[in-house]
Amino acid sequence: MTESSLSSSGAKVVLVSSSDENHPPENILDGSTKSFWISTGMFPQEFIIRFPHATKISVLTIHSYNTAVGQMLH
């Protein structure tokens, strides 16, 4: 898959451990760095993405900002 937007491929977020109504889990898949998912801040956090068919993932990029964990990821 070479698309930057997973939502256009039919992928869906089917579970998140928590979320903020202004920054919903769907933002995880939209391919934009201007939108984002925010959790409640409690640890651990997780999300599950379901693809419509078997999908090979060769690169996974996670951007995390303004957190102690995020400082380690950059």
From TrEMBL:
Domain of life from the UniProt record: Eukaryota
Stored InterPro entries: Galactose-bd-like_sf (IPR008979), IFT25 (IPR033558), Xrcc1_N (IPR002706)
Lineage of the organism: Eukaryota, Metazoa, Chordata, Craniata, Vertebrata
GO CC annotation terms, alphabetical: centrosome; cilium; intraciliary transport particle B; nucleus
This protein's name: DNA-repair protein Xrcc1 N-terminal domain-containing protein
GO MF annotations, alphabetized: damaged DNA binding
A Pfam family it matches: XRCC1_N
Any one GO BP annotation for this protein: single strand break repair
Protein species of origin: Denticeps clupeoides
Coiled coil: none
UniProt domain DNA-repair protein Xrcc1 N-terminal: residue ranges: 11-69
